[in-house]
Design goal:
Blueprint: E1 6-12, E2 26-31, E3 37-39, H1 45-51, E4 61-63, H2 69-72, H3 75-85, E5 92-96, H4 100-112, E6 124-128, E7 134-137, E8 140-146, E9 157-162, E10 168-171, H5 179-185, E11 190-194, H6 208-214, E12 222-226, H7 230-234, H8 236-240, E13 248-251, E14 257-259
Bound molecules: zinc ion (ZN).
């Protein structure tokens, strides 16, 4: 597929509960001249990827913000697809928070038992990245920041990806408003920002009330709100009308594409 520069396809834009029938929040990143990668891969991701007309065999890898099922629970289906359906021969790379390697095995074992021990026709390469670290991965520069979402030993990340063309895309993952998220967002060409609720209480998630306060000083050129519950999506048009004019903001929907 010819890609002008960088294209982000929203494969899913819903919360953990698939509110209003949307898929678990995850994104396909097409960076010209490189294998596409997915950012997160929740339980509905494979179905969403196929609905977008794409094949899991195209993927170079998965970048994972945190190890909750709505962000990485689709992995067993991806792994068996490459074993039995559209047989994969190229390595599948995964870069995620500390604990990813053990959790990949656990997800696969829980979903398919002994198939976790079957040899695969492709290599599964898992690397871990901790808050404060930066690495090169599949031609991208990836920086990890501490999110506020999980209890130790689990670690949730906000991520910032710099593409070959120098586009910077930040992903909040799931988090309460925090300094890690602010640092990831600063200077980003696009911030993919979770907005689970209109207002607290919302667990360790961002709310529209947070974003109203943060948007004027965020320093991201464009913001895509995602991980949406029913009340937020129902009021999306009204909420956007209140966004300061210097911020380009949109609400995500499944299948939406953004060019950068
Ligand atoms: Zn989560």
């Amino acid at each position: 597929m010819y890609v002008l520069a960088v294209r982000l396809t929203v494969i899913g834009s819903g919360d953990a509960f698939n509110s209003l029938g949307r898929g678990h929040s995850c994104y396909l990143l097409d960076d010209a001249g490189a294998a596409p990668v997915m950012v997160d891969f929740g339980a509905t991701a494979l179905a969403g990827l196929r609905r977008a007309g794409r094949s899991p065999l195209e993927l170079g890898g998965l970048l994972v913000t945190h190890l909750h099922g709505d962000h990485v629970g689709g992995l067993p289906f991806l792994l068996i697809d490459g074993m039995y359906h559209g047989v994969r021969t190229t390595p599948l790379e995964l870069l995620g928070p500390p604990g990813s390697a053990a959790r990949v095995d656990l997800f696969m074992r829980t979903a398919y038992g002994g198939l976790a021990d079957e040899p695969r026709p492709y290599e599964t390469r898992v690397r871990e990245i901790a808050p404060g670290e930066r690495t090169r991965w599949l031609g991208l520069e990836v920086e990890a920041f501490a999110a506020v979402h999980m209890d130790a030993p689990d670690v949730a990340l906000c991520l910032r990806v710099t593409t070959r063309q120098g586009r910077r895309i930040a992903f909040s993952g799931d988090t309460a408003m925090c300094d890690g998220l602010r640092a990831a967002a600063r200077g980003a060409d696009l911030l993919v920002a979770e907005c689970t609720c209109l207002a607290p209480p919302c667990g360790r998630h961002c709310t529209w009330q947070d974003w109203e306060r943060e948007l004027p000083t965020l320093g991201a050129r464009r913001v895509l709100f995602t991980h949406l519950s029913d009340p937020v999506r129902d009021r999306a048009a009204e909420l956007l009308a209140a966004v300061p004019s210097q911020v380009a903001a949109t609400f995500a929907d499944d299948g939406m594409q953004l060019e950068l």
